[in-house]
Structure formats: C-alpha cells, structure tokens
Design a protein that fits this description.
By secondary structure, this protein is α+β, with helices and mostly antiparallel strands. Helices cover 24% and strands 41% of the residues. The chain is built from 3 helices and 11 strands; from the N terminus they run ααβαββββββββββ. Strands 1, 2, 3, 4 and 5 form a 5-stranded antiparallel sheet that branches. It has a 4-stranded antiparallel sheet with strand order 6-9-10-11, with no helix packed on it. β10 and β11 form a beta hairpin. About 11% of the residues have low confidence.
C-alpha cells in the first residue's frame, strides 16, 4: 500500500507542475511578442501564477479568475489604443525579489514603456489588475472620478494602490493598507 501512495504522490506532483507551466504559458499568450521581449530583459520576468505564494494565489484566483497576476490590458495611457500594466520580478538572492511595474503602450506599432513602480526589494511578488472608469475613494478619504481604465498594484491581503491618468499626469492613491 505504501508503494501505491508514493506513486500517486509523484504523479500528482508531476501533474501539478505541468499544469502550472501550461497555465503560465497560457497566461502570457495574449501579449504581443514585441511587448514581452521589451520588458523581459536583464533578468526581469513577468509575474506568473507560479511566482505567487500559494495562500496569495488562492485569494487571487477567487477574486480574479482567469486573469494573469503580472499583466493587465486596458485603456490606461492617453493617446494610445491599448496599453498594458506589467509586474516584473527578478531574483535577488534566496527568497528575495526585486520587483518593478511598467506601463507599456503601443504607439505606432512599437512598445513605449514608463516605470510606474521603481525596482523595490520584496519577499513575494505583488500583482496588477484593471478597474474600469468610475468614481473611487482612497483609505484617506481622497476621491477620484476616473474617465479611463485604471490599475491596481496590490500586495495580496495587505496593501493596494490605484493608479490612473488625469490628462497626461499619472496619479495614485492608497485603497488598502
């Protein structure tokens, strides 16, 4: 009976690791190749499901079913047809990461990047996601009426910050501490 349990365990681990890799590939499949090659340079890689700690992943999956934790697509950037918010990580020693967030807009068929969050050392990656236009409030009582898509930069079950453009100025406020 012990042999059967051992074989079952090994098969389960193989299945889960394969499924995780396939989900990661699928997660990035909607990105233009030029965008992915623009941001994944110098050891930086887009945050994928396997990078998010298991407890955080469960919360993410329940709240954002089918979304990639490292990429959100929307109309964030003024005067661009589509834009992407991309969370990137780079290994920085044992169980430490450098993390940064870029806004990438496609202008005249070429990706143009803007650093939204400068490289910061973290123990686990944050995620990004999109919110549609609307009226929003921060934890400090600040309010914003946002006419285009905005995006959230979130440390799951901890802090979150909402970013948006007002004209050509990028603004933000804290929505969770």
């Amino acid at each position: 009976m012990g042999l059967v349990k051992s074989v079952f365990f090994v098969l389960t681990v193989i299945f889960l690791s394969t499924a995780s890799r396939l989900w990661a590939q699928d997660c990035l499949s909607g990105l233009p190749t030029s965008l992915q090659s623009t941001v994944e340079q110098g050891g930086w890689k887009i945050v994928q499901p396997g990078d998010v700690p298991m407890d955080d992943w469960k919360l993410w999956k329940n709240a954002h079913q089918g979304q990639c934790p490292g990429v959100a697509v929307g109309n964030f950037f003024p005067k661009a047809d589509s834009s992407y918010i991309v969370a990137l990580i780079q290994e920085d020693g044992e169980k430490r990461f450098l993390e940064q967030v870029l806004l990438v807009a496609m202008k005249k068929g070429q990706p143009v990047t803007e650093v939204v969050v400068s490289p910061t050392q973290v123990s686990s990656p944050s995620v990004v996601w999109k919110l549609g236009p609307g009226h929003y409030a921060g934890v400090d009582g600040s309010k914003a009426s946002i006419s285009r898509d905005s995006f959230i930069y979130e440390k799951i079950a901890s802090s979150a910050k909402q970013f948006y453009y007002q004209g050509s100025n990028l603004k933000s406020f804290v929505i969770s501490n």
